[in-house]
Amino acid sequence: MSSKTPNVYEWAVDLRPESLNGPEEQAVTLALNEMAFASVLASPEDLEAWATGFAFSEGLIRHVSQIETIDQRPLRHGHLVRLTVPEHLEAQARERRRVGASTSSCGRCGTAEEGLMFEGLRQLPPARLPAPEQWQTLLEALNARSQAGYHVALGVDDQARLTSGRDIGRHNALDKLLGKGLLGTMPQTVLISSRCSLELIQKSVRAGVTSLGTLSLPSTLAVETARLCGLNLICCHRGHRLQLLSRGRDPD
Q1: Parallel, antiparallel, or unpaired: how do β-strands 211-214 and 189-192 relate?
Q2: Catalytic annotation present for 235
């Protein structure tokens, strides 16, 4: 009678925080003028890009030109990023201010009204579907930028220029990428290192992204919404195969 040797695990014990080399996470508060709008847990880098992308994807601003200044300062346990905007935008934001704080993994949690979850969705203009070879290039670039504990959102524009956003939270990573696009050139194709739910579709559509790739299978609501908006939605199945879940309109 043969017996199998059980798996043996050993504890790796090192109590020094600096030895972990893990992702950073701090409380980050977005304020419009003197009003605190929302607090999230995020990686404390590219915070101006995050604040710009978050304000846009939340519908607090319609154009980056509506932001007069951006400044940030440390708080006791995190950071404050303040956007100076016209008073009427602050008043509008006050009516839709988040209920409580959001976690780093949270997208639309805390939204006061159901309708806000679908705000900003629209029919995207016709756009070509990137070829499989282009997705392979993006997957290789995403892998090169990956770091344990972080999500990465990678974008490429019409000139094949790459931009990336990195954060412990997948929504924050995309907001950072879109914020950089608003402050420079918005990518048309985006690949995210995570699953995809409705709020990531909403953020992408609002920003005019026409092709979105995700490493794992999106939710059914995300797929249905992508189809209604004409967004090219591709599941890359961790780089093993490409699955086209939603197809936008081809240019004439």
Answers
A1: parallel
A2: no
